[in-house]
Every structure is written in C-alpha cells, then in structure tokens.
Amino acid sequence: MRRATITGWGKCLPPAVLTNADLERVMDTTDDWITSRSGIKERRISHVEASDLATVAAKRALAAAGLEPDAIQLLLVCTCSPDRLIPSAASFVHAKLGVVNAAAMDLNAACTGFIYGLSLAGAMISSGTIDRAVVVGVEKLSAFMNFEERSTAVLFGDGAGAVVLEPAEGDDGILAVDLGTDGNLAELLTVTHTGTEYGRSYPYEEPAILMEGREVFRNAVVQMGASASNVVAESGLELDDVDILIPHQANVRIIDATAKRMKLPPEKVYINIASYGNTSAATIPIALTEALEDGRIRPGANVVMVAFGGGLTWGAAALRWGSRIEPVAVSDAALAPTDMTALEILEARPRRTEP
Ligand code: COA
Questions:
Q1: Which residues of the chain form beta strands (DSSP E)?
Q2: Is the beta carbon of 261 within 6 A of some atom in ligand 1?
C-alpha cells in the first residue's frame, strides 16, 4: 500500500498581537497568572475571516510543494470557527485558492481537527482514490472570545497552517495514525450559543468558550501521552527513534507532561505556545512549518504529531520525513493589511443588542 507524505507546508498568522498586558486592561487577570498556568505570552487576533487565513497558508503550502492549484483533488479545512455553516469554509477557500479540480469540505474535531484531516486525506491517497490533497488547520476563535470568561478568554488565538499531501517515494510518509473520541465528556469544553442553538437563549447571551479546565487538563495529559505512544508502537518505532514531537499547543504544562510520559528530552519537543496561544486545529501545522523553518526537522526525521481537544477528541500521527526540507518555491501571498490593534479589532466585533 502506498503511503502519503507531506510535500508542502505554510502558515498564516494575522499581524495584530494581543499581549497579556493588553488582557490585563480589559479583564481581571495578570500576565503572571496566564504565563505560569499556560505558558502563553501573546496571541494573534484576526482582522479577516478564517477562510482568508486558510487561503494564504494554503497558497504558501502549494508553493512549497511546487504545485499549481489545479493539481489538487481534495481540500480539507479543519476548523471549528468557519466563516459560516453553509457554505463550508472550504468552499470559500476553494474559490480563493483556485483548486478547481478539488472536492472541498470542512472537518470539525476541534483542536484535534488537523490530525483527523491528515489521517483522512492520507488514507484517500493510500487507497488510490486521490493523488494530491491540501489539509488546512485554521481558527478564528477570537470570534467567540468573551471578556466575561477570563478562564478561557486568555488561552486562545487566531491563525492557520496548511500542508500538501502526495504519494511518498521510498519508505517515508505517514507510518501510522491513532484517533479517539469520548463523546460522554463533550460538555467539558464547548462553545455555547452557536450552531442551531444560536439566538435561542432568552435573555440573549453571547457565544462563549466554556471549559472545565482541570478535567480537560487531566484528560489531555492521559490521552496525548497514550495516543503518541500508541502511534509510535504502531509505526514499528521505538520511543528513542522519535526525532521530534510536534504537540498541540494548548498549555505548556500539558506538553511537558506528555513529553515526560514519552520520556522525550525537551530538545525533541517543539513549543511555540508563548507566541500564539491555543490556535486549536491550526497549532500543529503552524508548529510544523516553524519547525521546518527553524531547521528542527532533518531529512529522514521521525516526526510525531499529537493533539487533544473538544469532543473530547485526541489523535496522533507518526511520519518519516522525506529528503526535502526546503520549499520548492516561496509564495508572495499575504493578507490584506490593517492598522488596527488587536484590542480595536476585538472591540469592533458586532454585538447583538436586546431583544
Ligand atoms: N486570570 C486570573 N485568575 C484566573 C483566570 C485568569 N485569566 N482564570 C481563572 N482564574 C482563577 C480562577 O477563578 C481560580 O480562582 P479561585 O481559586 O479563587 O477559584 C484560580 O484562578 C484557579 O483556577 P483553575 O481553573 O483551578 O486553574 P488551573 O491551574 O486549572 O489552570 C487552566 C487553568 C485553564 C490554564 C488549566 O486548567 C488548563 O490548561 N486546562 C486545559 C486547557 C486546555 O488544554 N484546553 C484546550 C484543550 S484543546
């Protein structure tokens, strides 16, 4: 059976930076609390839609793979913050990207979305159904950021990352995947008053990200450690063979605990949470892109990606990198510019007034 592998990668971070000091001005919190509990120093706030972030990341990934948009047969946009419910964010990205020969759909597995998307697209390539796919992880969770909910408002940020998948040559490519869900724990992490529940509350309530932080934390540590270890075993690798772990960036303490369970030294773990916070489905493709840019992934490296999120969902993928660690070409795609600060963007969000 042929394997799928990553041949292109790209990211898109909106320019407006929201620091912990900014948050201190609008809610009852401190830089010290946020940094010590989560490892986050700042995050990005998007002035454009999720599909715009996704499009720029995907254009950069296509250039890195040296492919034209018409070569793509599947576009998966992994997100829980699409521009609208219909059409999918993927449909908007389809048009903006010009992937005229691709089927396009969204995939919502919250923060685990990118691992689910990578698994599905990889399996379609392995089965011979398609040859080339773009998988994007993108979020604009600032749309649901509620200053009244300080325990979650400080954690999330906006951004996108994308990869191109093609059939592997030689023995590189996706070696194994491990996916799981526990729907009984669904209410532990939720965005309220969205979907078909939107507007049904009386008095009207704004959407908000609600989380039982400690329970989510406990489950995240257990499931991320188990899923990453499973995927290493299924790949026929030893833990020592893992060259780099790209974990979901939700909390630096969760990452440290996962690495400890896998007995991985800190230099084998990629962490960028301080700069972007939790960008949900986008954290892994952003981190993967930065790990390549930083020279942390070498030809032939054994890469393990592991995520955990709302659902509750979790998943991991093990991949042997190919010989090319440089992009074939660099795209000049960019977001429309903005002069607005992150707080100005947040304060300008439309709000419904009663009734
Ligand atoms: N600033 C200051 N204080 C805050 C705060 C904030 N932004 N948010 C909460 N607090 C307070 C709480 O009110 C509580 O006060 P109390 O003890 O007087 O009641 C106190 O801080 C401790 O809160 P707690 O929730 O117990 O902290 P914690 O150590 O569990 O850390 C999280 C909170 C959210 C950082 C942590 O639980 C976590 O990371 N959970 C998992 C997050 C995650 O992975 N989410 C996404 C999964 S993809």
A1: 4-12, 16-19, 42-45, 74-78, 103-107, 133-140, 158-167, 173-181, 189-192, 208-211, 244-247, 302-309, 313-320
A2: no
Reported pTM = 0.97
Q: Render pLDDT for 88-113 as a digit per residue (tens, 0 to 9).
A: 999 999 999 999 999 999 999 999 99
**278 is annotated as an active-site residue:** yes
Q: Given this model, what pLDDT does residue 352 score?
A: 66
What is 4-327's CATH superfamily? Thiolase/Chalcone synthase (3.40.47.10)
Question: Which residue's C-alpha comes closest to atom 44 of ligand 1?
Answer: 250
Q: Please state the domain extents for the chain.
A: 4-327
- The catalytic position among 20, 78, 111, 219 is 111
Averaged pLDDT score across all residues of the chain: 96
From the alpha carbon of 37, which atom of ligand 1 is closest? 35
Ligand 1 atom with the smallest distance to the CA of 217 is 41
What lies within 8 Å, CB to CB, of 64 at 6+ separation is 7, 8, 9, 10, 164, 327, 328, 329, 330, 331
CB 348 within 8 A of CB 28: no
CB-based contact 321:172 (threshold 8 Å): yes
10 CB within 6 A, ligand 1? no
